[in-house]
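Q: Please design a sequence for this.
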């Protein structure tokens, strides 16, 4: 079966409402009208990018296989990475280009079909980041309208602000990596930083010698030492952890033995994570925090403020938009703006979700950084909520 034929048949296999195909077709037509070209990536993809770059939720839900040469492959669990890979392999790589898509994706979902439809947009190469971010949110809202949903909840955040804060605090690299990793994976940072304020209790353990050898080391030196030790032991992983993961853990413990996360940094991070409300209020609170803590967050806050201006210019009601500094989508490759659209009163299931991922293109092999932003539409959820709203076809 060709990719072009897949969406309509996939809608039925995913158990969607009969109107899903017609609504999805209307959605694609609206994307085309906005100037986004249809992309149809292969269903079978190299597994490595998803294992290395996606969030934990996607990694643990992959359907994996191996070809005769030994390469690990997977059924695509989403379409952002496949569309990005096809763009990088095309003559347009590095140039501004926009793509839309609609097709089946495959993930293990307990009690739900593992094959379901996903639509969306990916925009590559635009240097006007704030304007491109606002355009993505505006098009995402138009997508909900195509399914007859006119009252949606807009949740937004910006991981670049958190990264800028951690950089400005000049923390040890180990703490920086841990906090950013946990933020991206939606781990409770309040609990995490409480643990980091506690000095390691005196005493020895079986790894005391390794921790002492790593004192003051950077990640490269730690990785070299652990690689040598594991090579001597004749193993490449312990308990499913890779050499790099073990090295990071040893380096983290070595740093923690040298002292706790400074309490003034803890107070600043907690204050930062408590900021929430409409975006204009958030900008004011962030500038006050930066001034009080004497931290240079100007560039990141200016980018947020510029984005809010472009959002308003596109007719998005800023007062009905929720911004939270603690908001994150749980995907490792996001680098800036993130958002989700929810049916009003629906706490957990997004209808549309996306954000900025400027670092992904170099991670996929691009020689030069390429700005990128996009979103995915969950056809299954959109159809269900559209049906609940009493609408029976494309608008």
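A: Design:
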């Amino acid at each position: 079966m060709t990719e072009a034929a897949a969406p309509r048949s996939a809608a039925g296999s995913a158990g969607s409402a009969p109107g899903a195909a017609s609504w999805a077709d209307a959605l694609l037509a609206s994307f085309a009208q906005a100037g986004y070209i249809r992309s149809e990536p292969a269903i079978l993809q190299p597994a490595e990018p998803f294992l290395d770059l996606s969030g934990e939720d996607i990694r643990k839900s992959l359907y994996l296989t191996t070809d005769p040469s030994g390469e690990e492959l997977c059924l695509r669990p989403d379409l952002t990475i496949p569309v990005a890979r096809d763009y990088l392999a095309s003559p347009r790589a590095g140039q501004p280009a926009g793509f839309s898509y609609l097709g089946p994706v495959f993930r293990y979902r307990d009690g739900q079909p593992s094959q379901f439809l996903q639509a969306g947009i990916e925009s590559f190469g635009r240097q006007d980041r704030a304007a491109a971010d606002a355009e993505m949110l505006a098009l995402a809202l138009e997508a909900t309208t195509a399914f007859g949903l006119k009252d949606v909840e807009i949740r937004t955040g910006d991981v670049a602000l958190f990264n800028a804060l951690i950089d400005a605090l000049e923390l040890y690299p180990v703490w920086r990596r841990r906090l950013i990793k946990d933020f991206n994976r939606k781990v409770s940072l309040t609990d995490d930083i409480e643990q980091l304020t506690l000095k390691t209790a005196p005493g020895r353990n079986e790894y005391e010698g390794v921790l002492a050898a790593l004192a003051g080391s950077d990640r490269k030196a730690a990785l070299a030492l652990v690689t040598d030790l594991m090579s001597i032991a004749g193993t490449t992983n312990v308990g499913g952890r890779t050499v790099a993961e073990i090295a990071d853990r040893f380096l983290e413990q070595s740093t923690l033995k040298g002292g706790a996360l400074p309490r003034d940094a803890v107070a600043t991070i907690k204050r930062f994570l408590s900021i929430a409300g409409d975006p204009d209020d958030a900008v004011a609170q962030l500038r006050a925090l930066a001034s009080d803590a004497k931290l240079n967050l100007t560039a990141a806050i200016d980018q947020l403020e510029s984005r809010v201006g472009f959002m308003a210019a596109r007719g998005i009601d800023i007062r009905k938009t929720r911004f939270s500094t603690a908001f994150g989508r749980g995907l490792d490759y996001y680098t800036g703006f993130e958002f989700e659209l929810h049916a009003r009163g629906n706490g957990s299931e997004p209808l549309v979700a996306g954000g900025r991922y400027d670092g992904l293109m170099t991670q996929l092999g691009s020689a030069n950084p390429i700005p990128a932003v996009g979103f995915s539409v969950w056809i299954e959820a959109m159809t269900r909520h559209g049906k609940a709203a009493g609408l029976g076809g494309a608008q």
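Q: Thanks. Anything notable?
A: Residues 172-263 form one domain. The chain has two domains: 3-164+276-285+311-388, 172-263.
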